[in-house]
């Protein structure tokens, strides 16, 4: 039986996003990275191991997930990594006082459609504060009826689809895990649309 707090597991999307980070590891040293909905924090921990300055976050309403983030940091010899409680769609002091970021990470945050707008509200806020930043996200296709396209237009965001084969994540086994190959996982990079709509 799955724990009702989904941030207690390494999901296939986290493995795929970690693969993307690994493929781009030479560009990570010195980058300022924020992981949203970090849970067990595989992508954020990997980014930190590759030299990025990382802040991990999960919902302030899920203390067990925040504790899991801290445990992942300790297990990976990263005791100084900052862990914040940030709830999607909610302005809070922690969000308002975040230092600048270059990359926002989110693996499988587009899980429940009721959260999609809150996630994109938070992402838009962060990208407005950091116009050159990008949101790197992986998601599992669970329903043909679920789409964020209209919300991207509403929030003046654009996305670029990243083919999994372009970073070696289209294999049946990835990072010694059989999980990614058994699921339909997609990756995209979201950024602010230009004022001319591009």
From TrEMBL:
It is found in: Cytoplasm; Nucleus. Keywords: Chromatin regulator, Cytoplasm, Developmental protein, Methyltransferase, Nucleus, S-adenosyl-L-methionine, Transferase. GO terms for biological process: chromatin organization; methylation; regulation of gene expression. Transmembrane segments: none annotated. It holds the Pfam family Methyltransf_16. GO terms for cellular component: cytoplasm; nucleus. InterPro entries: Methyltransf_16 (IPR019410), SAM-dependent_MTases_sf (IPR029063). It comes from the Eukaryota. GO terms for molecular function: protein-arginine omega-N asymmetric methyltransferase activity. It catalyses: L-arginyl-[protein] + 2 S-adenosyl-L-methionine = N(omega),N(omega)-dimethyl-L-arginyl-[protein] + 2 S-adenosyl-L-homocysteine + 2 H(+). The keyword Cytoplasm applies. Histone methyltransferase that dimethylates histone H3 at 'Arg-17', forming asymmetric dimethylarginine (H3R17me2a), leading to activate transcription via chromatin remodeling. Maternal factor involved in epigenetic chromatin reprogramming of the paternal genome in the zygote: mediates H3R17me2a, promoting histone H3.3 incorporation in the male pronucleus, leading to TET3 recruitment and subsequent DNA demethylation. Belongs to the methyltransferase superfamily. METTL23 family. Interacts with HSPA5, HSP90B1, TUBULIN, UGGT1 and UGGT2. Interacts with TET3. Interacts with STPG4. This is Histone-arginine methyltransferase METTL23. It comes from Hemiprocne comata. The gene is Mettl23.
